[in-house]
Amino acid sequence: MHSDKPYVRGPRPLRPNSLREQIRENLRLRLQHGDIGPDDRLVDVEIAGRLGVSRVPVREALLQLVNEGYLVGTTRGFVLPKLSAQDISDIFDVRRLLEPRAAANAARHLSDEDAATLRTALERARRAHAAHDVDELSLANMQFRQTWLKAEPNWRLAATIARFADQVQTVRLGTLHARATQDIVIDGLGRLFDAFVRRDAAAVEAL
Prior knowledge:
The chain is mainly α. The chain is 68% helix and 3% strand.
């Protein structure tokens, strides 16, 4: 990928017995955080050079991300999937089936630490909204969603929902510049937060 952003967070070296999994997890988190954009291209040789590892575990990690739906392969590397309007609509249908139940489960298992992180994300979103900072609002929204998703005890359900990060990011980038949409997001986050901190699973599911 042609970017100055590092591929590994923090100074800890990769352990030889788990290179592929560590590389996959690092790239997956970057994808979910929106650090890798639609114009970026992931090339195994370049990533291996940056990490100081061989090409094999990097390519295996990239191919696993392809199998999981995060990336698609091209003749010149790996890129984000190109989502059509129909793709986005279809994924919304899947998310409507999965996310309300997952959020309700998360509300039942939300820890005090999770609730505090949700509050931080909500306050961050409100500050960004007041400052007309769309990028920061998007990041705060992402932090809020990832926090409750992490509280979902069914890790398979959480992992399935997390695979739609590309669709979520596409929708955010395409809609959050509208002030009316930002108002809806802030209102929705506030109501969701109130329901989460009450551990009101039914209210969370309905919202």
